[in-house]
Amino acid sequence: MTQHAHSPLPHDLGDGLLLRRSTPADADTLAEINGRLHADPPAIFDERIAVWTRDLLSGNHPTFGTGDFTIVEDTRTGKIVSSLNLISQTWAYDGIPFGVGRPELVGTEPGYRKRGLVRVQFEEIHRWSAERGELVQAITGIPFYYRQFGYEMAMNLHGGRIGYAANVPKLKEGEVEAFRFRLVGEADLPFLAEVEAYGSRRWRVTCLRDATLWRYEVSGKSPGNVNRLEFCVIETAAGEPVGVVGHSDGIAWNRLGTMLVELKPGVSWLAVAPCLLRYLRATGEQYAVRDGKLFEGLGFWMGADHPLLQITKDRLPNLCRPYAWYLRVPDLPAFLRHIAPALEARLARSAAVGHTGDLKLDFYRDGLRLAFENGRLTTVEPWTATRDDGGSVGFPGLTFLQLLFGHRTLEELQAAFADCWVDGDDARALLNALFPKQASSFWPMA
Q1: Do 179 and 297 belong together in one domain?
Q2: CATH number, domain at 409?
Q3: Nearest-angstrom CA–CA distance, 247 and 261
Q4: Which of 130, 162, 227, 303 could anchor a disulfide with 441, C-beta 3.0 to 4.6 Å?
Q5: How many domains does the chain have?
Q6: CA distances to 83, 393, 402, 438 from 156, in Å
Q7: Domain containing 84: what range?
Q8: pLDDT tens, 240-293?
Q9: CB neighbours (10 Å) of residue 41?
Q10: Are 57 and 27 in contact, with CB atoms under 8 Å apart?
Q11: DSSP symbols for 402-422
């Protein structure tokens, strides 16, 4: 196949294959391909994936254009044989916003696999992401695969707890529900955004949404879109809003899934939890009747550290370990400079407050030097270990990203990788202060 040399699209890949951008006219074809290739189990067609694809190409998505799929077309047959896309969004690291490009819906027809088509498309969307000023690319996907394109599994993805219908507490005789649930309306969007932002402070990384993005989440996605949530306001019997919940709009794997539950400050999780579980059970049963599906229980995919899941371990007895986000940080010095205020704030709260000195990170093929003066990060620059100066710490491959994004502690990395090392107590104390373990739990723009 012809080497892709960052030529403008469309680009001839050789062997009758053409790399081009999508147009609205590709919507139905891509929907069919994605619904088939991404179905789980593969023997079925996933209409939910197809609806998502059409929504992305509708022109209504706030951060996705109709040309944001890459497409490989076999010009001999006119068929699309491989495609993927890039969904731009804004995340925050300890509250510091940064641009993210999310590749998704990566798929190739079986007869065209192992020919480098995905690689050449990743090169293209990585260039798009760089042109948009995005510091990170992030993707969910199958084990190991995306490491070959410069990604590392470096941040927890979902995880949570599962309970069954029989685990849901019944309302006692003569008892009246203290809370009720109603669909979010246009007037509720500021409250939804405020409560979600308050709850997200517990996480290392979050996804930021402005009013336009929240409006799209609530009313812009088509029914049946695999990423669509039904949002409700939780309110007292007197009509005072106290929280929000976002759950799927259908049954999957015999469960109703919930991605968002947050309460405003001062509201007890203990008081709300039983009513919430009963509401979700009733909703799951209604969906099952509507869609002719089996309903067995509830799944909460907010991370096991979420306060609701901490207080409902008997009601939600099955703990589900998190998977992981693949993350790519093409310019690590630039990202570290960008989040310097967060690193300096952590240092100020540690035993190394006011620290002055260098921290040299050896990645074996290259490395970085971080210089601090009176607790301020003044320099982040490329650095390479020498025989006389091996640095402060060694991280094989891209494992430093696991520390940076709170996925593993330094000690956990050392236990997992024999070639991860630390030179002395000072370096260890600095690294533990700068990069403590902290979970992230959110759903991205899709």
Answers
A1: yes
A2: 3.30.1050.10
A3: 9
A4: 303
A5: 3
A6: 26, 24, 10, 9
A7: 11-139
A8: 999 999 999 999 999 999 999 999 999 999 999 999 999 999 999 999 999 999
A9: 6
A10: yes
A11: HHHTTSS-HHHHHHH-TT-EE
